[in-house]
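Assemble and predict.
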Amino acid sequence: MSEHIMSSKFYYTIWIALLCLTVITAAVSFVDLGPFNTVVALVIATFKALLVVLFFMHVKYTSEKLTKMVIVAAIFWLFLLLALSMADYTTRLLS
Amino acid sequence: MATLAITAEREHYLNKEYGIRSWLLTTDHKRIALLYLISITFFFFVGGFFALLIRLELLTPAGDLVQADTYNKLFSMHGQVMIFFFLIPSIPAVLGNFLVPLMIGAKDLAFPRINLLSWYLYMIAGVIYVHCIVTGGVDTGWTFYTPFSTAFSNTRVIEAGIAIFIAGFSSILTGLNFVVTIHRMRAPGMTWSRLPLFIWAHYATSIIQLLGTPVLAITLLLVVFERAFNLGIFDPTRGGDPLLFQHLFWFYSHPAVYIMILPAMAVESEVVACFARKRIFGYNFVAMSSIAIAVFGFLVWAHHMFVAGISLYAALIFSILSYLVAVPSAIKVFNWTATMYKSSISFTTPMLYAFGFIGLFTMGGLTGLFLAALGIDVHVHDTYFIIAHFHYIMVGGAVMGYLGGLHFWWPKISGRMYPEGWGRLAALLVFVGFNLTFFPQFILGYMGMPRRYWQYPPEFQVLNVLSTAGSTILAVGYVLPMVYFLWSMRYGKIAEDNPWGAAGLEWKTSSPPPTFNFDEAPEVTWEAYNYEEIAAPAEVQVER
Amino acid sequence: MSDSPIAVEQHGPELLHHFVDTEQQRDAASLGMWLFLATEIMFFGGMFCAYLIYRYWYYNEFAAGSRSLDIWLGTVNTAVLICSSLTVALGVRAARMGKRKLLVILLLLTIVFGLAFLGIKGVEWYNKYTEHHIPGHSFNASDLEKPPYSRGGIDQQHEQIYFSLYFAMTGLHALHMIIGVGIFVFLTYCAWKGRYTPKYYTPIEMGGLYWHFVDIVWIYLFPLLYLIDRKPLR
């Protein structure tokens, strides 16, 4: 791994961001956004996950494209499972 | 004439160290491959034994050999043993383990100790499953459908589930090892486009193992929890959905059939190229088709559930996708056939298996297209038509690929030639026995004979008798290679480095190879299947 | 069979014989770990699929079950894991810079955070036990607060499905935490022994990747299990 070493301040910044997002997501859940509560919660969770993957796991700074492909493939496969299964469940009452 | 003295001259992976510890603690991928060979052969006979009992019962319309409950156990365990303990590991864990490093010019797989762990996990799973068999077995069908498996079956469901769960991890680790090895350990000059198609197909297989098996693992875990803690996740009387189990189960188990067939296609490419003495026609198409099969294979699983109660619209989607998945397989068949056009064919034992593979796999695949049509599937689902369809692919395809590969690489693995005459006889017996066993089942299914039934109406008897007769011939065809392979290890003709005049790095090292595969690290400057540069053997080096 | 002379150069005992150089070994380890994490995504993913379907079917029961979880403990636990990810990331950095003592301290802190997480989870599970929310024959969720805007009552059996998934998902996650703590105990021991240098700290890196992954799973479990419907009752 020949990327340069990040400063510890950098990691502390990400850490603070993650903690803030955690507090935000918990707080927002008390606000009535209708169906968007779920959307907001998942968006925040995804943002947190991205911070961990890109910065704590160094994916942003790796020169290895294969790593990114593996991550994208795994997430895509999970979506295949979820989406095609839901294709059944959401259309059952229509049949 | 063959003696043991010759092998003592040169050190290779078999004679480098003796003793049980050197085998049980080996990290040499070639020795691990042989450990797997012994284990899966054992399970092949266990599964085959169940099959013979099934066929014996089905000789007569009445249920007179075993009780109905026992019959349920027979077909369930036949399926689970054959799929999880024989077919899924077979080619990857034996031929893949042995050949992947050799074919790419590496000294071993990326993670040799994980490779050994993989075998131990398989063995632990096997021991647990054997214990399950002898303490009552499973009667849920190989598919563990809920709520029967979770709420009603009185058999060893939890134990079987745990055994297959562990075997799944063995499979995952093998796949992981192959992907990393193929990406990271290729010899200098071995670019992706110079890789043998065997490697491409095993790469695709490994992708499926990595992404699909974990879903089976979690599904089995949920079944075990449900049964152990009386939950209600799959129980319709408590709000659960049995179809959820089926979705999760088939998400793995459909791609699993591609885990079973892709490696056989891998063997097919190598054998056809060698015994037609020609580069595989359409190399890029065959390579890309392997990847396409792996990807598309994940999009079709609910075609196993057309009559289970899924929505009609979902059924339509999965039906269309199921037609799509046939395309890359067909492309491969066209390319193998085109390879053979205007080529010089030798009818050696591996080539006989290869011919059998193309014909039988094509029949199995085409009947799969029939099944992708909703209208036909409704009629033949859960009949012997389905059984015939998948046995054409699993046995006519995968097993023949496995046997063809074993014969083709036997000189490399053992340093000995098997007796060619016996090899051809066995191949013929397998082909004839197979067709006699399974073709009648297409007719039986179309006529309406249900699967998993221990009795049947008398008008189906003639075809059932033919099928059972075929199975005995098939059994002889399978036992013969066991006998002559063992015979050849002591009395077989000593094999040269490249008795077939085949292309591929594995043939450039000695038979058997040294422990670290190559005396000098290879550097590849030629394309794959460079048969125009390789001299054909004056006569095929066989033992008569 | 001996290696070619070129391979016998300056490398430590950590270079395994079948690799050409340490870079190849590290790249192999990294790809291997990422592929393993991909399998873990699919492993947890199966349960996310079950969760998705049953939440779609039984939203009221899922919402009610979610409200019965302690949001403060859940939030604190999320923060604990985030802190542990920080110490892991700083630990990898320390290893890269050859700071052995700092590395050991950070690894120990990570273990402490991991154990804290498990402890809090244990408290939460115990609460569920006393409330009779553990699926099985003593399950009784008639005390659940109905979420606002929900029509109809809470079906007990559907509620049990929510809790089955709650325990299955958090249980599997906790198991991964326990394994992670075990791995880190081993890594701490090796680090203390001076096994890791700026040239070779791959196990720390790979252990770190695993730990971060377990953190990410929780980052999703928290809103999905705890925050389904927290709108205040009118």
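Chain B has 16 helices and no strands.
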